[in-house]
Each structure stands twice: as structure tokens, then as C-alpha cells.
Design brief:
seven-stranded antiparallel beta sheet; 3 domains; Elongation Factor Tu (Ef-tu), domain 3; alpha/beta; 471 residues
Amino acid sequence: MRGVEYRGLSRIEGPVVVTKRSRGVGFNEVVAVYGRDGRRLGRVVDLSDDYAAIQIFGSNTGLSAHDSRVEFLGKPMELRVGPGLLGRVFNGLGEPSDGYGSIISSDFRDVNGLPINPYARVYPRDFIQTGISAIDGMNTLIRGQKLPIFSGNGLPHNRLAAQIVRQARIIGGGSAAPGGETDAPSESFVIVFCAMGIKYDVARFFLEDFEKSGVLANVVVFLSLADAPSLERLVAPRCALTAAEYLAYERGMHVLVVMTDMTNYCEALREVSSIRGEVPSRKGYPGYLYSDLASLYERAGKIQGSSGSITQLPILTMPNDDISHPIPDLSGYITEGQIVLDRELSQRGVYPPVAGLPSLSRLMKDGIGEGMTREDHKDVSSQLFAAYSKVKSVRNLASIIGEEELSESDKAYLKFGDIFEAEFLSQSETENRSIGETLNLGWKVLARLPREDLLRINKKYIEKYLDGSAG
């Protein structure tokens, strides 16, 4: 149905135009703006008694205050959803960009979805095997969790995310056998991939990786590249999460949502906030950055009455590798942990360069142990964390007094640290380790430590796994 149309604009400020307000206009309503260069879409971002501020998805070239026309369409921005979503590529506004036209469906969903009602949530418990020891063994990912990757410019976060997409499997009930296999069936994910403000070569890397690995038919891609209007970056993750909600809660699928780069999203939010004249907060970001990020992150999880789930893997690059920067700082408060990539490890050739101590999975305790991964998982993880923490302290001491002045015990920890990084943390991009293989590898590196230092492991597990019965 055609909406009310007005001629003339009161003000044009970059991508924001101001016009007289129509009766009944609502916040986030879609607007069509007509200028000399044709029609472009926008959305209502601010309202007063007499005026409406509209964000234009594109440039303001061809718009004039006197001749432009504004049509309020009377609906929010919507995404067409249906069974044909999988295998398709869309732009940041949810419009097909792969040349195959719109999907065949009359089902539209408001992209401005709401966080899941806490009362309807099902607590996440199912273990997700990524095949990466640094994650599975020490920072376990759980189905329905939101676990961001904190990275920096030049670090291999894209390679790590692509590897997780290829290898991620949900492991059902049952425990890993001593040889590393599990007696439980596994379920694969469908992927919703959302790119915001990334360069074309990065987008090409992901698309080619999906195609080579054979998962492209199970992927929905939303691309808002660096040359697209910055305002499009604010809509792209909402379109992606709307598609994920349809696949998870109506089609009963397990959906893994990869969003990169959340820093570009926040930069677009800061840009729009500045244009609108809002009072800035930390480092110029708007004061509502926390609630805005929460409106995206909290759309992950499992809900009662649905067999599907949404697991989020947002990627953000920390400006100047500063983990206290507002974007990683606030993301850490909202999400259930973080995978932090370490520049020093990367420079030493360790892949994936997952930092042992800053990384954390807050839901790990609820998805590991007997019946889920293996009985010794919690103890092995705890001991690896404790030993690697001691390694960091010994390395700092050695840098002051010299390695030759260390005690024999400290030298043993230095050797442990080198072996831990070379054998446990390091693996190739094609190596897919089962949880049993990861835990056995953990025992192998822990065997380098004095037996009396293994204080965090139950003695029965030491007898069972360290004395050779586990191989």
C-alpha cells in the first residue's frame, strides 16, 4: 500500500534529511526519497512534533531541498524469508546481490527483532566441537552461546572463523572414548555470515572458502562492503539475525552466525550519532552503544518449544590491540566470554594465536564433563590454565635475571610453555581434532611437569590417563 508523500526537505545534513512529519509516522519506519537520481530508501531515526529525521541508505547526491519528494511507506524495514534463503548472497539491506533475483516467498519479517525473553530461554548446555584445541580444550563453545573473537589488524581472525565454520559440530550425549572418538552422534550447522565494512578481498576469501569446503549451499551471506554506504552497516547484522531466527526457530535448524567486523559497525554508529548531534560518550561513541550492541548479541540462544538454536561468533578488531577500548569492553560485558588473539604468539608463528589467559568461556562449565565431553575435561583445562599462568611468570622472571639463574622447577615450566604452544595451541588450518584427541594432547604436555605440581587434577584421572592407559 502506498504511503503519504511530501514534497520538499527542510534540511540536508550528509546522509540525514529532515522533512515535515506525517501523522502516524513511527520510529524505524521505511521511507522512499525521490531526487534527480531516482529513488533511494531510508528510515526514520528521530521524531519531533512537526519534523522527522531520515537516514538515507546511500549518498545524498541529486537531492535538493525544494524538488525532492519523501514517501512514508508505513512499515518497518523487512526481510523476505523462506526455504530459498540458503545458498544466497544479499547486500546489507537484505536485497539479493548474486544475480538470481528474490527468493520465492511472501513471508516478510521485521528486521528490528527483539532480544529473546529470558523466561523463554533454554540454558545452553550442548558442547560444540570446533576441532581447535585452544577452544575445545580450554574455552569451550556451547550451543546457543555468544562468544566473540577479539582480534587486531593483521591477525588471522578471518582464517580462524573460516576454520570454525568448516569444522563446527554439535556433539550429542555420550562421552569421548580414550582413543579420542565419541560415541555420540553429531549435528552440523547452517551458517549465516554477515560482513560489515570489510574489504572485497576479505569477503572473497570467505566465499571461496565456503565453496571449496562444500558448505556454501548451507550458508546465507549478507555483504555490506567497505564501499557501501556506512548506514548500511547498521542494517546488515539485523537482516542477518532475522534470517537466523527464521531458520532456527521456524525451520528447527542449528544456526551459527558469524559477524565481522563489529568494530566497523560501531564506527558507523558513531558516525550517525555525530551527524545527529548527539552528546558523545567514551571516545566519541554514543552513550547507547552498550544497549545497541546488546540488541544484537541478545538475539542468540535457544528457546522453549523449538529444536533450533542460534550461536553467535562476532569478530571485532581492537583498535591498537586495546582490550579496554569501549567496543571490546562492552562486548565482553554482554557476551559469555571471548577468544582473544595474541600478536606475540602470531609473530612467533603460532596458529591459531589464542591467548591462554585473557580468553574465557563463561558457559564452559555447563557443557563439559562426563556424558558431554569426557570426565577429565574440567581438571585438564584447569591444570593447563594454572601451568601456563606459571609459565608467564617464569618468562618475566627470566627476562630480568636470565634463564641460567632459574631453578630447575622454573626451567621445567619454561620447557612446558614451549611445548604447550608448539603442540597444543598450534595446529594447521586443515587439522580437525576431536575432543578426545585434544584432551590426550593436553595430558601429553602436562606429563612434562613434575607429578607433584598437578594439584588441580583428581588422582584417579592421573592414574587413568597419565600412566599410559589412555595411550
